[in-house]
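This part of the workshop introduces the protein records we will be handling. A record pairs a protein's sequence with a compact description of its fold. Comparing a sequence with its tokens is the quickest way to learn the format. The record below serves as our worked example for the rest of this section:
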Amino acid sequence: MGGLGPGIGGFEILVIGIVALLVVGPKDLPLLMRKIGRVMARARAMANEFRSSFDEMARQSELDELRKEVEALRTGQGMVPLGAEADAAFRDIRDDLNRPLDAPVMLAAPDEWPDAAPVMPPLEAVPAPAPKPKAAAKPRKAAARTKTAPAGSIKTASGKSRAVRAKKVDL
């Protein structure tokens, strides 16, 4: 269900718009649409006001009913006696609550807190382990190695070696 209400969809709105354009004309159509919009806004406002007043009346009637129930409980009206068995059970409970305790009941306390770390007994003097002998120091690598170019090669500007051909020279 799309559109403005039940049974009115997009195609029906399009047909109504075309008929309104033909009947009213393109000059007066914006004024007509504005008036229709205002009427719809007033109708929605009245519907919302009616709904809110109806909800308020329903709340008020529920509150009145609740007040009557509370008043009936205060005065004792509508209370049904439970019987001798219920009275005896309530009396026993009341007596148990009102009598003094014969002996204080002590619950056994745990030896330690559950989240505390266990207490370790003191350790006897244990000799400290002997320090490990240090290994002989290894020679450090040179920071930069230099290569000598083999005979018959030259170094380029980038530092790479390049082979050079020997040329025969006529004398």
In short: The chain has a mean pLDDT of 75. The first strand starts at residue 153 and ends at 155. The radius of gyration is 52 Å.
